[in-house]
Amino acid sequence: MSTEGPDGEEPDSGIPQAGGVILRLLLGTQLRRLREAAGVTPERAGYEIRASRSKISRMETGHVGFKTRDINDLLSLYGTTDEQVRARLLAMAQQASRPDWWSQYGDILPGWFESYLGLESVSSTIRTFELQFVHGLFQTQEYARAVTRLGHRAAPLSEIERRVVLRMRRQELLTRAAAPRIWSVMDEAVLRRPFGGPAVMRAQLHHLLDAAALPHVTLQVVPFASGGHAAASGAFTVLRFDEPDLPDVVYIEQLTGAVYLDQRPDVEHYLEVADQLGGEALTPAASKSFIEQVAKET
Amino acid sequence: MTSDEAWETDGDPGSAGPPEFDTSVAHQARMYDYLLGGKDNYAADRAQTEAALKVYPEWAFTARANRAFLGRAVRYLAAGAGIRQFLDIGTGIPTAGNTHQVAQAIVPESRVVYVDYDPIVLAHARALLTSSDAGATEYIDSDLRDTSTILEQAGRLLDFSKPVAVTLVAILHAIPDADDPHAIVARLMDAVPKGSYLALSHLGREFLPPETLRQMQDLSRGNIQQEFAYRSRDEVAIFFAGLDLVEPGIVPLQDWRPEPEAANPGKSAMWCAVGRKP
User: Fold this and answer.
1) What is the 3-state secondary structure (H, E, C) of chain B?
2) Sorting pLDDT into bands at 50, 70 and 90, what band is B42?
3) How many inter-chain contacts (A to B, CB under 8 Å) are there?
4) I want to staple B119 with a disulfide (CB 3.0 to 4.6 A). Which of A106, A279, B111, B202 is the partner?
């Protein structure tokens, strides 16, 4: 596991300076490995901390926070006596419980999306496939407003605006130091469906071209004329983390929630589709010309 | 920058044809990714690599030593030999310390052309191996055997009146004798001017006991999309015919100009060398 923060600086504790979700995931993964190595069942582990088997499962998958006492008890049960390892895991648990910047939007953020923001903010590589909408990280304010209205017809204007502000805030990821690498493949439909009208869409297409000019952003378009895979798959995102121990996470958004996949066979199925799409789409250079052309036609 | 203008996906993939994108069969580039700790590999790649490691545990060190040799060779070429143009054939899946990153860290204006015959591997390269502003990278979808395509397309970015470093790192052993790898290398080196360089690494026949070699070949036959030809030091030397070998000549990966502080607790199974066209 890497001991460097995402900005390359070594924090005092040797703990990655990451958001709460990823730290919980990281910690959970390690706890599961220690438990399995010690041959301890989830039931037994749950009993040790006066909790259920499913609590252990939720801890190990990063879905709940950790109490210092629980971590201490579990590590003792697993026979982890190395003081440095214990201190490191405990520090991680403490850091994981600090609030993230988006916590102030808790009233409009469903939990499933909060998890996504946490993961996205600490990814080293983000691969996406989009079918209908420009990816949230690349949306202009006007485009974001148009698609937000669509999804929240009954919401008051003030709420729409807060949602748009949240999305814009999230885009700070693109320009921060040590920004993740983003490899985004989109269907031609994304470029053609004029949310907010032609003027908004034209500005959006130029904004996409600006994003594509960033050294860590790669955009590729799958034109209508090609590609069975684009049609066979729905939109999805694959998040990758620098830590060698952490698996890739596939995120699939649905109308009322989201699915996260981190089991290897599932993830690899999506990686395979992502690979196919990357090979099938126009090259990044040809994609820029294509977007320019669509902007002219819009 | 790149010079793809058309709205088509990649054109003619080369004479031998690209490999099928088939994740159920191991692939050299993805096995290598796995050995280097990458995450762009599939179950078949990992199973095949683990099986090979059982027969020949030094395989893991060989992969790391090969990557380290690439880094040292490119650093030597950029810093010591004044090379500003690179033709990197057999790019593989991007990992840390790719050719343009090493070269541009020393000379930001360095230009690098990446060549791979696998369109999926090349898609990764296009997406992830992007140049610094000062320099440039270009990508060619071609089989090594199709040298006319490589040279013609590389001419879009590289100036063949000035020295070029041709890097063939861990790729020539995927070319069987029937396809005359020595003639392929000769065609490439004929096309570059004097003062150009050739850097290569190659699986060596001498490093594995005969029984281990046979087991490795049995293991890969039909299970990997590429078959490997292990060649002797003498056969590797023929690639450098007409070139002046840079010190220390043809040596195992870990012995080519090792970093002073580097500890080399391993033995690799590859020969490597760098030569200059006089």
Assistant:
1) CCCCCCCCCCCCCCCCCCCCCCCCCECHHHHHHHHCCCCCCCHHHHHHHHHHHHHCCCHHHHHHHHHHHHHHHHHHHHHHCCCCEEEEECCCCCCCCCHHHHHHHHCCCCEEEEEECCHHHHHHHHHHCCCCCCCEEEEEECCCCCHHHHHHHHCCCCCCCCCCEEEEECCHHHCCHHHCHHHHHHHHHHCCCCCCEEEEEEEEHHHCCHHHHHHHHHHHCCCECCCCCCECHHHHHHCCCCCEECCCCCEEHHHCCCCCCCCCCCCCCEEEEEEECC
2) very high
3) 71
4) A279
